[in-house]
């Protein structure tokens, strides 16, 4: 039961972060073209294997100001991000540092659904065993 509580709290935390990111992304109502200028690699260790994740860094221009910024989501798909690719970016008019690449909202919504399900799956056994 303690394990389920710990896991549900962890999944709730991740879910809250994704929900906050979702609402930040919803503010992005302007567009510009950006270029992937670098792709950071990081090792991720799971219980069964180690894999490499890729996180792109974008350069884009808004109102004659150039920005270099990395997007918070990453992928283990080597084909998803390509160096020097031009990508449509959606950004917030009053805060151009808040942006989301075109197509990433799908993955953000998918992660919200996955972590909501995981949260509920671990929370339900915990609640059902309460006296």
Give the SSE map.
Layout: H1 2-26, E1 30-45, E2 50-62, E3 65-70, E4 86-92, E5 95-101, H2 104-128
Antiparallel strand pairs: 1-2, 1-4, 2-3, 4-5
Overall number of domains: 1
First-to-last CA distance:
12 Å
How many extended strands? 5
**How do the strands line up in the largest sheet?**
3-2-1-4-5
Rg (CA only): 18 Å
The major β-sheet equals: 5 strands, antiparallel
What's the rounded overall pLDDT mean?
88
Overall spatial form = globular
Structural class determined from secondary elements: alpha+beta
Low-confidence runs (pLDDT<50, min 5 residues)?
Answer: none
Please state roughly what percent of the residues sit in beta strands, choosing from under 5%, 5-15%, 15-25%, 25-35%, 35-45% or over 45%: 35-45%
Q: Helical proportion? A: 25-40%
> What count of helical segments does DSSP give?
2
- Provide the succession of SSEs: HEEEEEH
Quaternary state of the chains:
single chain
Can you tell me about this structure?
The chain contains two helices and five strands, in the order αβββββα. With 131 residues, it is an alpha+beta fold. It has one domain. The model has no long low-confidence stretch (mean pLDDT 88).
Q: Keyphrases for this structure?
A:
transmembrane; alpha+beta; DUF3592 domain-containing protein; 131 residues; membrane; transmembrane helix; 5 strands
């Amino acid at each position: 039961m303690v394990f389920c509580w710990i896991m549900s709290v962890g999944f709730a935390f991740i879910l809250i972060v994704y929900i906050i990111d979702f609402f930040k992304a919803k503010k992005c109502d302007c567009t510009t073209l950006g270029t992937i200028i670098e792709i950071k690699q990081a090792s991720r260790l799971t219980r069964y294997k180690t894999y490499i994740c890729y996180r792109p860094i974008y350069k884009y221009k808004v109102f004659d100001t150039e920005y270099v910024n990395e997007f918070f989501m990453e992928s283990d798909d080597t084909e998803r991000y390509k160096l020097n690719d031009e990508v449509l970016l959606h950004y917030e008019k009053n805060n151009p540092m808040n942006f989301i690449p075109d197509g990433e909202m799908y993955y953000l919504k998918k992660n919200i659904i996955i972590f909501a399900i995981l949260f509920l799956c671990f929370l339900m056994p915990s609640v059902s065993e309460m006296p």
